[in-house]
Amino acid sequence: MGQPDERAATPEEIRTGVLLEWWWRTRRAGHAVPSRKDVELIATTGQLWPPGIDVAAAEPWRDAIDFLLTQVKFGMRDPVSRLPKRGPVAPPWRTWRA
């Protein structure tokens, strides 16, 4: 018997998977991150700041989110592991939790 056909992931599904992986890793590392709902809304729309998100919570992560959205757009595999550890896409110092 043949293998079942696997449906290709949509751009929205890919963005959601990437941004939620970033969100989970960053949150687990102790950083203050935007809400999961906000991250999912960004992934759904593909926009940095779609209407309805908490911009104040997301703004410190602008460069990282923009980097990830751009990498997904260009077909990069596993862009979360390629985030630089230093520079504008690294975790902002002001998000560290005490």
Please tag this protein with its features.
globular, 98 residues, 4 helices, 45% helix, mainly alpha, disordered C terminus
Textual characterization of the structure:
The protein is mostly helical and 98 residues long. It has a domain of 57 residues. 45% of the residues lie in helices and 0% in strands. It contains 4 helices and no strands. Helix 1 runs antiparallel to helix 2.
Characterize this entry briefly.
With 98 residues, the chain is an all-alpha fold.
Overall pLDDT: 86
SS strand fraction = under 5%
List low-confidence stretches: 94-98
Which outline best applies? globular
The percent range for helix content is 40-55%
What distance lies between the first and last C-alpha atoms, to the nearest angstrom? 56 Å
Order of helices and strands: HHHH
For the report, how would you describe the main beta sheet?
A: none
What is the CA-atom radius of gyration, in angstroms?
A: 15 Å
* Category from helices, strands and their pairing: mainly alpha
Please report the total strand number as a whole number.
0
Count, helices = 4
Give me the secondary-structure topology.
Blueprint: H1 11-28, H2 36-45, H3 55-58, H4 62-73
